[in-house]
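Many introductory courses stop at the sequence. We go one step further.
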Amino acid sequence: MKVWNIAEYLLEEPSETTFLNPLSTYPTNTPPPTLASWQAHSDCINSISICTRNSRLLIISTSSDCSVALWDIRGNRIGEFGQEHHWTLSTFDPNLAEEKDKDQAKTQADGMAMYEVE
């Protein structure tokens, strides 16, 4: 999944049109800035919905991997519907989620180091 900042995208007209596209009023080769990008599911995403809760923008995604997940706008997974452990929005802290992801990545990297062939 990717999140872009399109608040200021394509609001100003350029001073001149280009030779390659004289009818164009906006540059087409400069994408808006990417705010976040992450692997949301193990299979293709079927649906995305956006909602707001307590002034926080949240993303709900469904996938062909049979999962439904809730994310914050930075790509931190708040929870997955149907999982064994319960979770709530009020107890989610994105800073703790980032630390947990770093710890998991380090644990995986340490595990892979054990299998290196010299």
